[in-house]
Amino acid sequence: MSKPFTIGPLNHVGVAVPSLPDAIETYRALYGATDITEPFDMPAQGVKVCFVNLPNSQIELIEPLSEESPIWNFVQKNPKGGQHHVCFEVDDIHDAVSVMKERGATVLGEPRIGAHGTPIIFVHPKNSNGVLIELMETPKGDH
Amino acid sequence: MSKPFTIGPLNHVGVAVPSLPDAIETYRALYGATDITEPFDMPAQGVKVCFVNLPNSQIELIEPLSEESPIWNFVQKNPKGGQHHVCFEVDDIHDAVSVMKERGATVLGEPRIGAHGTPIIFVHPKNSNGVLIELMETPKGDH
């Protein structure tokens, strides 16, 4: 029998922002963050992202690449930016998806490769106290 | 010379919810969380809170105690709940407050004792990409 499904570490908090350079400057100049990754485009997701590395977790800064971006409307509604999602690690994404569905949650789309190179899915905010939850397969190996 | 100011670990993500028991049930039944603390009232802050303990961090679930609660309006606007704040640890709260002010940020109120028993302050969302940031002095000793 496989072990019961449970979420693992809080991998990151996703913050949607109108401008990555401005947001990076905030974390660097105001909060003194010293380890911020280089921004990179994820055209399939319609976003440009970078990570503020903290000792135990990360802030994912996300800027829409265009008006087609899934976060475009969010940034229109929140012109300064705002908390967009919380990401928990899971051992196996396919196991997670079937558990979520079995338990009545609405899984958004099919598993796809996320910013850490492992498969992810999102669970609808209506299932989790208004919070959009990303589930991400824990990176194996050098992460 | 003291070391330069920087934020430490991501202590927790604060999620405001209309009902702690329902939110606890979500984390237990849907996400399989097994370590959730007993809810307790913080009358001075107008909230009842509990923590979902994850291997590296926590989700703080927060329910307003009354209409006077500072999160009452947030829950009215977000009736299912929603991400309310992100909390970073700092070495020294008084140092953090003076650095924040020196750097032009709006610190909300004076340091007060937070849910972990150490002093906290909040930084206005306008200073941090629309995200309300809590700074919390790292608990010393048995934490």
UniProtKB/TrEMBL annotation, chains A, B:
Q: Which InterPro entries match?
A: Glyas_Bleomycin-R_OHBP_Dase, MeMalonyl-CoA_epimerase, MMCE/EMCE_epimerase, VOC_core
Q: Which GO terms describe its molecular function?
A: lyase activity
Q: Which SUPFAM superfamilies match?
A: Glyoxalase/Bleomycin resistance protein/Dihydroxybiphenyl dioxygenase
* Key words, A-Z: Lyase, Metal-binding
Q: Which residues form the VOC domain?
A: 9-138
Q: Which family does it belong to?
A: Belongs to the methylmalonyl-CoA epimerase family.
Q: Which PANTHER family match?
A: METHYLMALONYL-COA EPIMERASE, METHYLMALONYL-COA EPIMERASE, MITOCHONDRIAL
- Annotated protein name in UniProt: Lactoylglutathione lyase
The record lists the lineage as: Bacteria, Pseudomonadati, Pseudomonadota, Alphaproteobacteria, Hyphomonadales
